[in-house]
Amino acid sequence: MITLKQLTKQYGGFTAVAGIDLEVPRGELFGFLGPNGAGKTTTLRMIAGILRPTSGTVEIGGIDVARDPVSAKMKLGFIPDRPFIYEKLTGAEFLTFVAGLYDQEGPRVEHRARELMALFDLEEWRDELVESYSHGMRQKLIISSAFVHRPEVIVVDEPMVGLDPKAARILKDLFREYTNRGHTIMMSTHTLEVAESMCDRIGIIQAGKIRAHGTMADLRKHATDGATGLEDIFLKLTGENAARELVDVLDA
Amino acid sequence: MPDAGAQVLSSHTGAHQIAQPDPSLLHLLWPKYLTARARSLSDERGRGARFAILGFFGLLFWSFIFGVLYRLLAYFRGVEEIGPLLAGKLLGLILIGFFSILLLSNIITALSSFFLAKDLDLLVSGPVDWLKLYGAKLLETVVHSSWMVVLMAIPMFAAYGMVYKGGWWFPFIALAVFLPLLIIPGVIGSALTLILVNVFPARRTRDILSVIAVLAAGGIVLLFRVVRPERFSSPEGFRSLVDFVAVLRAPTSPMLPSEWAQEGIMSWLQYRLDYLPFYLLWTTAAAAIVFGALLHRWLYVKGFSKAQESSERWARGGAMRRFGAFVLRPFSILKRELVLKELRLFFRDTTQWSQLILLGVLVVVYVFNIKYLPLRGEGITMFLRNVVPFLNLVLAGFVLASIAARFIFPGVSLEGRTLWLLRSSPMSMRDLLWSKFWVGTLPLLILAVGIVGVTNYLLDVSEFMFAVSLFTITLMTFAVAGLAIGFGTMFPQFETENAAQIPTSFGGLLFMMSAIAVIGGVVIFEARPVVTYLRARAFGEPHDIGGMIFGFGLAALLCISATVLPIRLALRRLNTIER
Fold first, then answer.
1. Domains and CATH numbers, chain A
2. Contact A98 B425 (CB under 8 A)
3. What angle do CA B362, B100, B190 make, to 5 degrees?
């Protein structure tokens, strides 16, 4: 459903993403892990059509995002890591506006918007301006907006940031149910527990390159010295030994 | 820094006894300095050209102020007895103007720097002494509010110093007078804001203040127009010279620092140095800082906490939706939603209301001026009565350009933080520009046709000139809107939080220059056919139809190009923006 071929992004002389090849099939929840500045957000924003690749291609459902962006984006919902939305719209108006961007309106959209807001405990806030929402509420509203037009693919950057435990649980169930229905999700996260428990496959990216990808079993095989938990595998693959020195710093 | 980190960690574990942290005032201001330095050292493309253009216009502006004042003061200097009094009065007027502007500006700036700035969470949660926080934020407020006034004051003081031969010490005297004049409104403004924030939530206070500020500015302008100061230029307005001199000698407002500043400056320039104004200015500034600091200590924590509250506003927007369903029915769902979104964001933003008030004042003043033009009576020919409305198009065009700079130019910049949503959706950037263009252009067109129609009616112009005016202003409106969208997209200000600052950017300056060039071009192209027509009518000469088609055709071509080309360039630019 999502196909990345030699996807590369350079900012001047700095290569943020270096020739990624990846295939995420229909019905899969793919997790993208990596240290800060590894190229996760850049990759996801290229898939969403926000950034243009320096070279390589992104296909959604077989449609090239660069060549036919409108058709490709009709299949897509994007949830960014930072919840910037129109402050002077109400929550309900924002969802109607987003549905309108996908050429959808009417009672079905309103019903779905109402359902999504109820799911995330936002129903009481539907007629309140977004400027009075908390960070977590904005995040919930953006997540709702990604689902309001019933996309086939959802691309999510750090979905759990700012969510309370109840909303985080709802989101996990929603994602799982969504992929069970044959849709596709690609998400980046720093929460290893989330990735381990939710994702069908995980890709670990570092310095713009995918170091390893596969199921948890595949990753365990990849990490040679018997690391079993995702945290150990992650640290082993990304060479983040510095993290282990934290205790030494605290004791200094 | 690692040492500091270790100290912090160890202080929590109680391993070492360390001194109470006490960051200095300079330390608090250090990030501001580093930010300014990083900005000045950035190697952004086209920066040199930008500075050169800004510098050129800045120098032009300075030279203009200096030139006008120099001539006026030189004239005053030649008038015995009254001359120095007039120069003093003029200085007093300018300084009281500065003082009022500074007071308003400080009230508004203090709201941001003391209560809404992004660094406050860090500073308030840190072990920062209240007095140092006050000092840092007061300095920040004063600098932000005063730089423009300082820039305007330089050519003014230079003109006074040169005409009255102030000597090498004059800059120091001017500085000694002007510094407390900047500090006092800074402290008073910050204190007033502090009190207001303790009464209302900060975001509501900002709304209230922006409306008050614009109403005050509009009120002053309106009052000025209603009083019609030009009447006082006629000598029959004064009863006797003695009365006039007596009025000039009397201090206008002896309790105001601006009056003390004027006294101080003029006493030096007239070689009778009086120390009292200097004592008054500096002791008042010092006392103001002390009282301001005490008030800050008393109210700031409570006010800051209150400032974090949101304004809690609900909006149902049923009327807007019904409007959309009815008027926008012929358009696609996407276009309808984009237009509705634009309208909602505009009408719910109170900073836009204050700009609307300003716009209303501008239009009223403009119509007022046209109404009082002495275009009736002896010596006023039909020719003159028709040329004035033609030149009126230049003024109307300038009003339109100012409005477009306020309302259309910032459109794309204001999408900055939400561009991710539009770019990840299947809509094309052409649709976004379409909505921005039409939502801005249609109200502008109604306003343009309205003001030109009313002013032409007041001027009692011929049918031909009426038709020419309406034709021209319609074309100009589209051109000005196209340029505003174009330059606003090519020079976006995505990081600006305050929409009112966007038109004052470099792109805004370029937009105003190009809009004025287009307006000038249109008037030049149309001048010949209009004058030929009026001469033909006045003297019974044959009409030059070919010349008229050529002239009006060129004007139309210029306007259409100014509408289409910038939008095309904007579309190309928007498609390459990555956010």
1. 1-75+153-229 (3.40.50.300), 86-151 (no CATH)
2. yes
3. 115
